[in-house]
Amino acid sequence: MNKALRKAVIAGNWKMNNTPDTTKATIEAMKPLVADADCDVVLCVPYIDIPAALEATAGSNIKIGAENCHWAVSGAFTGEVSAEMLKAIGVPYVIIGHSERRQYFGETDETVNKRVRAALDAGLIVILCVGEVKEERLQGVTSEVVRKQTKVALGGVSEAELDNIILAYEPVWAIGTGLTATPEQAQEVCADIRALVGELYNKAAADKFVIQYGGSMNAANAAELLDKEDVDGGLIGGASLKAQDFSVIVKAASR
Ligand code: PEP
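Above: inputs. Below: predicted complex with phosphoenolpyruvate.
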């Protein structure tokens, strides 16, 4: 019922793939396939591809995002890019807290929270990723893990600012592995996160909070995942590199 209160968001995460040339070609192929989408469509791309992506998507319904941002506005942080810099070149979205950032680049719940704060202050829309690793699921502590990640990441975020946050529940064991959570597993955790938002804020805020599932979502399994009451879209890695596959997912989310 409350699903009708929320517009679905399908976001691609290209990770470390594509050059400006292949960015342009992929987006040109994608544009006509998603032009009539009845959901928000976002592509998060490597920093180096952002200018080409912005140019290729101008005037279309595809929005561009970055895959991370630093928490400082500027300063001695070699190799980093700030939220202010992304805003300055017209990037509206940014992924924060992706499991690959947590796993390979030492991101913690605390640095994720700092990045969320900076992105909101710069006026960006955040795609905030949380999710348990395989051992945590096997130990039965998924809820505790995901609730803690979400609670810490949302520290200092006001109810009004929740409108600029999309939460992506991404079980780490399902990312890039071909192992997808069952629709029931995805629904259970997305509903749990929504309940937490209700506890931290209130029911109205929880009812309109957009929660995606991510983890090996593809053209074949998207519809049944997106059909679940508390799954409001998807964060798509591998399948977002292929225009045709991505467009099938976008169509499944258009309702
Ligand atoms: C991701 O990168 O967020 C992701 C879900 O990847 P994949 O779809 O390839 O599992």
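The two ends are 13 Å apart (CA to CA).
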